[in-house]
Amino acid sequence: MVFTQLLFLLAGILGLSQVIAASRDCVVRPLGQGKDDTDQVEAAIAQCGHSGTTTFQPGTYNITRKMTWDLHSAKVDLHGFLSFIPDIEFWLNPDNTFRVVFIQSQASWFVITGSDFEIDAHNTGGVQGNGQVWWDFFTNHTREDGDGRPIAFTLNNVTNGVVRNFRIESQPFWCNTVSHSRNVVYDGMYCNASNSNPKFFGQNIVPNTDGINTYVSDNVTLLNWDITCGDDCLAVKGNTTNLFVRNVTCHGGNGIAFGSLGQYANLSDIVENVHMEDLKMVRIDKNIQPNMGNAVYFKTWTGSVNGQPPTGGGGGTGRVHNVTIQNVVYDQVNEPLHMYQTNGGHSQDLPSTLMYSDLTFSNWSGTFLTNTVVDIECSPAVGCDDITFNNFTFTSLSAGALKFICKNVENLTGLNATCN
Ligand SMILES: *[C@@H]1O[C@H](CO)[C@@H](O)[C@H](O)[C@H]1NC(C)=O
Ligand SMILES: *[C@@H]1O[C@H](CO)[C@@H](O)[C@H](O)[C@H]1NC(C)=O
Ligand SMILES: *[C@@H]1O[C@H](CO)[C@@H](O)[C@H](O)[C@H]1NC(C)=O
Ligand SMILES: *[C@@H]1O[C@H](CO)[C@@H](O)[C@H](O)[C@H]1NC(C)=O
Ligand SMILES: *[C@@H]1O[C@H](CO)[C@@H](O)[C@H](O)[C@H]1NC(C)=O
Ligand SMILES: *[C@@H]1O[C@H](CO)[C@@H](O)[C@H](O)[C@H]1NC(C)=O
Ligand SMILES: *[C@@H]1O[C@H](CO)[C@@H](O)[C@H](O)[C@H]1NC(C)=O
Ligand SMILES: *[C@@H]1O[C@H](CO)[C@@H](O)[C@H](O)[C@H]1NC(C)=O
Ligand SMILES: *[C@@H]1O[C@H](CO)[C@@H](O)[C@H](O)[C@H]1NC(C)=O
Ligand SMILES: *[C@@H]1O[C@H](CO)[C@@H](O)[C@H](O)[C@H]1NC(C)=O
Ligand SMILES: *[C@@H]1O[C@H](CO)[C@@H](O)[C@H](O)[C@H]1NC(C)=O
Ligand SMILES: *[C@@H]1O[C@H](CO)[C@@H](O)[C@H](O)[C@H]1NC(C)=O
After folding, report:
1. How many angstroms is it from 390 CA to the middle of ligand 10?
2. What are the tens digits of pLDDT across the range 61-102?
3. Which member of 95, 211, 319, 375 has the lowest number of beta carbons within 10 Å of its beta carbon?
4. Among the atoms of ligand 3, which is closest to the Cα of residue 197?
């Protein structure tokens, strides 16, 4: 007891967090086919998740219920996959998931909280989502936001967390979410939602498999991401500030989204100080994923309230300000850049009061399938201000005159065409 206190005191004085971090070590091995690993996984994290190191040996860990890892001054080496049982009715029972992600009341089966930790999955481990059975199931069941389909990997209430070389196979729904967190680095993230059931070839049966949704989080860094999905590759949602993104490849889906914003009439969504660079959008085999929407797009709800979240909403205030997106290469997207403020709305709605300003798009090039190069439709209530293009080039793969659409935009510069 005395010795331990002395050790902690010394460590505190000398700033030797390593002394503490090295004080506990847990090693876990998969129990094998037919066995349930959840108890031993939770026990290891309970024992070594505070000031310790937990090592998961390679292999598959059978996870049969919701799980939170509370990590403080801890390291996790995850060499294998946490495989979440493909029992849809079980997970859809609200008691069997967490609802820590406020927006759209989304469900999570695996939540990380805490501070000063690193999870390294060494490109050989992560989460196995067993998504195919989910995607098949929802081809003939109603699918809505907040319906309980679980997020594969959630970071909530994290400070100073690092996730490295992590793989998520077959996410049933959103792949990642970071919410109510700050100072988080994801370096190396792979998500892949690819239908392999020939019955559904040529259809997007993997909607809502977003690479990540960022929400109410400050100073998040995303490096070296590789996302295959049928929805938003990245979705920057309300109160994401100081976001840095570098080297992201999106295979299929909608592209990189800012939004949807303004869904909650009682909340403002502030997105500020975002820098993204080295982005690549690639259209893939249309049998696997028919969509490749935009390189980047921005969307808000209207100024009217149309129903309640999670499925309805609107009327929220806020702004998107100081965003730079540079070095973008896109391949056969529908439209390189789209901005609109009418998500979930009707023609007679009040216009959104959420304003886009100080946006810079530099060094873009690639091919697109339509004639519309940019479609910037800002709210008549507030307009957009200061949109700058530098070295913004494009090749249309369809015949006909190119269109540059701008509505309610002030101070747009650098586009090699008249935008109207
Ligand atoms: C996972 O554990 C459950 C509960 O014990 C068991 O029924 C199931 O067969 C196991 N799954 C695998 C793939 O081992
Ligand atoms: C967030 O985590 C801290 C500890 O890191 C804890 O004290 C606090 O209660 C948590 N907040 C919420 C809302 O869970
Ligand atoms: C729903 O789709 C699944 C997967 O394709 C199929 O096995 C099942 O028979 C369908 N059920 C109904 C009621 O159509
Ligand atoms: C942002 O997060 C990084 C990585 O955790 C950290 O090194 C940096 O100090 C943070 N910046 C601020 C202003 O807190
Ligand atoms: C995604 O998974 C599919 C099916 O397993 C595979 O064919 C494809 O190569 C994977 N994509 C990437 C980018 O690894
Ligand atoms: C970009 O990220 C991919 C993984 O998604 C990685 O293989 C590649 O080396 C990274 N490129 C650079 C220049 O870091
Ligand atoms: C905002 O409204 C939502 C319902 O739309 C409610 O759940 C939430 O508690 C409200 N938040 C605040 C801060 O009033
Ligand atoms: C975003 O931050 C603002 C100002 O701090 C706050 O009023 C608003 O409720 C926050 N919005 C969300 C979605 O948390
Ligand atoms: C704009 O955002 C960048 C980070 O992307 C930041 O470095 C810069 O200080 C911000 N500019 C202003 C005026 O706040
Ligand atoms: C223009 O952008 C492309 C990438 O889209 C890049 O390869 C090229 O170097 C840029 N040119 C200049 C002058 O920056
Ligand atoms: C457009 O930019 C000019 C010069 O910076 C500025 O004076 C003007 O107020 C801006 N327009 C709007 C609507 O902000
Ligand atoms: C504008 O774009 C066209 C076609 O890409 C090109 O031929 C022309 O030189 C460009 N003009 C300027 C001023 O950059």
Report:
1. 9
2. 999 999 999 999 999 999 999 999 999 999 999 999 999 999
3. 95
4. 5
Instruction: Say if CB 271 and CB 320 are below 8 A apart.
Output: yes
The pLDDT confidence band at residue 1, using thresholds 50, 70 and 90, is very low
374: its two tokens: 């940019």
Gap between the Cα atoms of 290 and 229, Å rounded: 11
| pLDDT per residue as tens digits for the range 117-156 | 999 999 999 999 999 999 999 999 999 999 999 999 999 9
Reply yes or no on whether 231 is catalytic: yes
Amino acid identity of residue 109, one-letter, is W
Note the pLDDT of residue 5.
41
Give me the catalytic one of 218, 231, 269, 358.
Answer: 231
Using one digit for the tens of pLDDT, what is the confidence trace for 223-263? Answer: 999 999 999 999 999 999 999 999 999 999 999 999 999 99
Residues 270 and 260: their CA atoms lie apart, in Å, by 12
Query: Residue 404's beta-bridge partner residues?
Result: 374
Q: Which domains does the chain have, with CATH numbers?
A: 98-413 (2.160.20.10)
Give the Å distance between the CA of 386 and the centre of ligand 11: 8
Q: Phi and psi dihedrals of 40, rounded to 5?
A: -70, -30
DSSP state of 211: S
Length of the chain, in residues? 420
User: Please, are residues 108 and 101 in contact by the beta-carbon 8 Å criterion?
Assistant: yes
Q: How many angstroms is it from 277 CA to the middle of ligand 9?
A: 14
Evaluate whether 46 touches 113 at the Cβ level (below 8 Å): no
For residue 76, the one-letter residue type is V
pLDDT band at 9 (very low <50, low <70, confident <90, very high): very low
Residue 50 has pLDDT above 70, yes or no: yes
- Rounded Cα gap, residues 271 and 274, in angstroms: 8
Query: How high is the pLDDT of residue 416?
Result: 85
Residue nearest to atom 6 of ligand 8 (CA): 268
Phi-psi region of 14 (alpha: psi -120 to 50; beta: other; left: phi over 0): alpha
Q: Is 172 left (phi over 0), alpha (psi -120 to 50) or beta?
A: alpha
198 phi/psi in degrees, rounded to 5: -55, -25
Q: Which two tokens stand for residue 352?
A: 């959104």
